[in-house]
Amino acid sequence: MAAAMLTLAAPTAPASANSKYAGIVIDAKTGETLYNSSGDAQRYPASLTKMMTLYMLFEALESGRVNLSTRIPFSAHAAAEPPTKLGLKAGQSISVETAILSLVTKSANDAATATGEFLGGSEAQFARMMTAKARQLGMNRTTFRNASGLPDGRQVTTARDMARLGIALREHYPQYYKYFSVRSFTFGKTRMGNHNRLLGKVRGVDGIKTGYTRASGFNLVSSVVADNRSIVAVVMGGRTGASRNAQMEKMIRLYLPKASKHGPGINIPKPGGVIAVAALQLPDVGPVPALRYGANNRIALAYAAPAPKPVLGRAALVETLIRQQQVTEPARASIAAPLPPEPIGSASAAAIDPVTTASTQPRAAAGSETGTRPEGWQIQIGAMPDRGAALALLDKAQSAGGNRLSGTAPFTMTYTKGATQLYRARFAGFSGQSSAVAACRTLKKKGFGCWATPN
């Protein structure tokens, strides 16, 4: 009798108790919650994480920072990610469009990591950008730690937050949302099918994303538009892919007819600009700073104030926030956010500024600027608004890098786009790609952003 009453009370609940399960159905025209079972309890997103990675990539496309043919390089870290993956080697690259297709269909972990490193300078930095973007979208119980959804106990979300992200993807980027309905694509000689088996099977389903890890169970976010009704539904923690899909089909069948045919839609404000500041440790929960356009189409970060204030340079901004006790002193040590590799933007490297390598000589003895770029593999650890800040960053990195930076030459390089000039902080003189990547790995563990480049 008790079991029968439970079935009547929650007709879409899984047949047996499942502590991982969470589900929600949102009417996308009114915002009404049509069904909720643990929808606000934290769960592991698994590859639903790639929805945010794609949101950030769509944002970069719309802003013009990249286009569909822009190449995304694979680092050794990205290439080493476990399956599911494309299987590229370090140094190879794919187009932005291929990255999109590989994420929505095959859910390729290596492509997700490469995309995060490309947009954020490092995957850890990109994860902070993703978390900040989640706050802007009202996803207040979500924290991202990587771009792929590979297991990390600190990477959490809720069914409601994932539904909100699904609606934001559909409403904010309709020109790119169509990729979620792609049934398959061919990479090289391999045809890759979409993991979302409801596409083409359930009327009205036009995407979005599946996910699975052992800790999360089987997850699915579905967007459904039919009969002038629109819902976004989420199932998390399914025991199998088949049971997850059956649960989603049942939710769609029961709740789509209950959705409204009229309504203004859910007002999820579209954030302006791209978050590109990893200097400050953004909070995992709660409000985030206001974000405004700064130099080079990137974002200057400033906490909201009653009256508009001028956008500060990154170093000055951190100092101001420290004085206001809005960030802690350790934030000062990582105020550089490395710029993505060359394909983002067409700015030219106008000048190279070598820096004295001997630790006993002062930085003031650095050589004069030249127009010759050092040959061979290099690493970049940041880009600063003034040369002094870049030199200070090189100093810190050289101390942290230890033997990995032995025999290398620090230098700054001006990077100009329009009227904006930044100073890239780099080390040159590595024996090859492996030594450059190893140095980056060491520096990342010390909290620095870093990426390797052949010149």
From TrEMBL:
Taxon lineage: Bacteria, Pseudomonadati, Pseudomonadota, Alphaproteobacteria, Hyphomicrobiales
Domain SPOR, chain residue ranges per copy: 371-455
Protein name: SPOR domain-containing protein
Domain of life: Bacteria
Protein's organism: Pseudohoeflea coraliihabitans
